Amino acid sequence: MLQQAIDFQSESDALYELLKPLKDADFERQTLFKGWTINTVLQHLHYFNHAADLSLSDEDGILALLGDLRTAAESGVDMVAHTNVRLDGAGGQALLKLWHDYYSGMLDNFHNVDPKMRVKWAGPDMSVLSSITARLMETWSHAQAVYDLLGVARQDGDHIKNVVVIGNNTFGWTFVNRGEEVPEDRPFLKLTAPSGELWEFNELSDSNYVEGAATEFCQVVTQCRNIGDTTLNVVGATATTWMAVAQCFAGPPRTPPAAGVRHIQT
């Protein structure tokens, strides 16, 4: 079985358990992420879970879906409005069930295909392994806004190492995406996993590194937190520049939240 698919289910299940007690009206509460509601977050996750699942078996179908999304954007319809229309305005507990039942059912499809198989996506083609790992990363990062809204400090598992790897692998992408030259000195990472295990990446350096909690590193590269709102120890010009603008997800360059904007609400 594909471990990343199991990890994706674990992260999704944790969010599901968090949301199960809520009333329908609660799903319209706005998060600190662009004013998205909980309904917006779930619609987004469900829509792109469906897209990733579709890419496994229906190339024409996924290309049509992505083309539809692109046409909407070119017509001035933002992704939130487009997704809401495509999901017939689903919300509340009905949306929660739709999202839960779909992600639970799609996992067999990821378990039963070659993880190296290439699939179509909005950017370059990618492997099935990369696809399900991206779904884990998106679920983890968008869920942060929900945990923050509900005043819950999430208890991460070591499966967030998948997000750390994406964050590290997209070091160059962060700069390329911004039209900037990629620094040659990729920073050394020394991160502490939720379990306490030490994770190290890249060439050892005592003058260019990021050190601290893996969870906080994930929050920065997914732009869930400003680097100034973490306790990460960042040393060196390249490490400092990277952490100020890090972006591990596709799409045009995005500006991370300003200091103090994203946080656990009380």
Give an account of the 3D structure:
- The protein is α+β, with helices and mostly antiparallel strands and 266 residues long.
- The chain has 2 domains: 3-154, Four Helix Bundle (Hemerythrin (Met), subunit A) (Up-down Bundle); 160-245, Nonspecific Lipid-transfer Protein, Chain A (2-Layer Sandwich), CATH 3.30.1050.
- Helices cover 50% and strands 8% of the residues.
- The chain is built from 10 helices and 6 strands, in the order αααααββαααβββαβα.
- It has a 4-stranded mixed beta sheet.
- A hairpin with a 5-residue loop joins strand 3 and strand 4.
- Helix 1 (3-19) packs antiparallel against helix 5 and helix 7 packs across helix 9.
- The longest helix is centred in the middle third of the chain and has 22 residues, at 128-149.
